[in-house]
Amino acid sequence: MIDETTARDAVVRAADELFYTRGVQAVGMDAVRTAAGVSLKRIYSLFASKDELIVAVLHHRTTIWDAGLATTSERATSARERILAIFDFLDAWFREPDFRGCAFINTHGELGATSSAVADAVREQKRTFQEYVARLVADVGAPAALAPQLAILAEGAQTTAAIAGTPEAAHQARAAAETLIDVAMTGRG
């Protein structure tokens, strides 16, 4: 019998893949059980409800998102490039063969109106991303008002890339971000 941490990880990873490719509402707990190789009884001992599992998947996705941003940002040589690295990260992600858009936006679209726990988890991820962007904007010495503008560009690029089925939105958003940064920095010294 596998330990609790291993079982929990297997269930979260299996649910993540299934929810992302098929949609949260389209996936039943039987499908999660089969994909994870963990009994339903064990799954429900780990997660009291499907909503609780969905929130765990969203937290797992947050960890992946944060790590991807951090890794891409590490290659940047300046504060400005760390901001633009967001869009480089998006470009690489959009080119992955299994890209289906933002799991947070997708899940909120499916359940945000009916599950406060899911809505809260999505809002938390979006809030922490905005705070991350705000720190980068502060590091470059730009006005704080630039941060939400850049965050909106990143969010819009994710939705556009998913719907259009092309990664070009990352390049377009990056070019717009460069313009916004340049305009924001005009007159700063």
Automatic annotation (TrEMBL):
Q: Which domain of life is it from?
A: Bacteria
Q: What is this protein called?
A: TetR/AcrR family transcriptional regulator
Q: Where is the HTH tetR-type domain?
A: 5-65
Sorted UniProt keywords:
DNA-binding, Transcription, Transcription regulation
Matches recorded under InterPro entries: Homeodomain-like_sf (IPR009057), HTH_TetR (IPR001647), Tet_transcr_reg_TetR-rel_C_sf (IPR036271), TetR_C (IPR011075)
- Name the species this protein comes from: Promicromonospora umidemergens
Where DNA binds (residue ranges)?
Answer: 28-47
